[in-house]
Amino acid sequence: NREVDQMIAVEALIHAAGKAKRASFITANGVTLLKDIYKKNENDSVRIRALVGLCKLGSAGGTDFSMKQFAEGSTLKLAKQCRKWLCNEEIKASTRRWAVEGLAYLTFDADVKEEFVEDKTAMQAMFQLAKIGR
């Protein structure tokens, strides 16, 4: 099944990005792939996982700006996409939870965190997801 293969590939990239040694290789080679999957794939389950992978890579380095992987402002753009997914009630809750995970990575950035907490709609959507559980 092509969808399952794509989800496994994206999740492998996300997992590999968790280790600093592998993250530089994934950043150099995986970002383009993840962007492509996010933009072109028609399956929401695959697209949201690609977005989470981009968020994880975008947060690499945490508060150490010398280790930042993406251009200034990129994390804000990623967070905006996550908030859009999070607030779209037409999307399954299980898929919207992935948007929360993406935001969890990105909120290491103070600007992202500030925008998120000021977005009442996104905050309410996150709390609603928490209330309905799994």
Query: How much is the average pLDDT?
Result: 84
The gyration radius over C-alpha positions equals 14 Å
Largest sheet: none
Tally of individual helices: 7
Low-pLDDT runs = 62-67
Kindly name the structural category.
mainly alpha
How far is it from the N-terminal to the C-terminal residue, by CA?
A: 25 Å
Coarse morphology: globular
Strand content: under 5%
Beta strands, count:
0
Helix and strand element order: HHHHHHH
Helix content: over 70%
Structure characterization notes:
- With 134 residues, the chain is mainly α.
- Helices cover 75% and strands 0% of the residues.
- The chain has helices at 2-16, 20-40, 44-58, 74-87, 93-106, 110-118, 120-132.
- Helix 3 packs antiparallel against helix 4, helix 3 (44-58) packs parallel to helix 5 and helix 4 (74-87) runs parallel beside helix 6 (110-118).
- The longest helix has 21 residues, at 20-40.
- The protein is globular.
